[in-house]
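Retro notes, item 3 of 5
We never archived the inputs for the magnesium ion complex last cycle. Fixing that now. Sequence and ligand:
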Amino acid sequence: MTALYELHKLRVVLAPGRNAPAALEDVSLRIDAGERVALVGANGSGKSTLLRVLHGLIAPTSGSAQRRQGLQQAMLFQTPVLLRMSVQNNLALALWLHGSGWKSARELALQALAQSELDEVATRSGRQLSVGQTQRVALARALALGPEALLLDEPTASLDPHSKRLVEGVVQAYGGTTVFASHNLGQVKRLATRVIYLEQGHLLADLPVADFFDPTRLQADSAAAAHFLKGESI
Ligand SMILES: Nc1ncnc2c1ncn2[C@@H]1O[C@H](COP(=O)(O)OP(=O)(O)OP(=O)(O)O)[C@@H](O)[C@H]1O
Ligand SMILES: [Mg+2]
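Structure as it came back at the time:
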């Protein structure tokens, strides 16, 4: 398989039971190296579930989800958690778990924090940061691992405008494949090469970014996605 990710007729039911609705239904897609894919859609449309499937945290109820063998990937969760230790050691621990020696892990951790302009929180406890700071540190931790693919669940949802720009810059500078969920359509325009629109677990549009934001083309491809976009831009 040359694709990084390949989903075929994927169905995911998170809470099996009578009449349980599927969180994802009949989703097929492939993602190749170098793509920056935005996942958009209303709350509950299945964006986080799709990211978790790509990361291997949720198995398909039916259909298939394949990842290229040996793919190095890292995920930033919608509500990331840091451990009760210094921010520097939070990053160092992740690096150590990936095989670095402790001393070099500590040094690499500091470098990674500096690259994300987070040096000033290096000695703070990971549990005593604001939501936005936690999100930025968790992204720095994911990037420090040097992944080929980065999965980001609303990476700037809690950030102030300055931090938002900073994080967007960090994501742009990262050269690998990126799949990110976002409610920020300006950000989708700035960062994505391709946009996937989800509605109630169904994939209703999958287009190059220019086509997604071209009202005529979007309307022709997916009236539902065009309707969503109109609502968003009011
Ligand atoms: N742990 C769970 N157990 C059962 N159902 C769940 C669970 N987590 C999510 N769901 C359901 O799965 C569907 C998809 O949820 P998901 O979190 O993927 O949506 P989302 O697009 O990420 O939403 P948001 O924009 O609010 O982050 C929703 O109907 C949701 O209620
Ligand atoms: Mg979500």
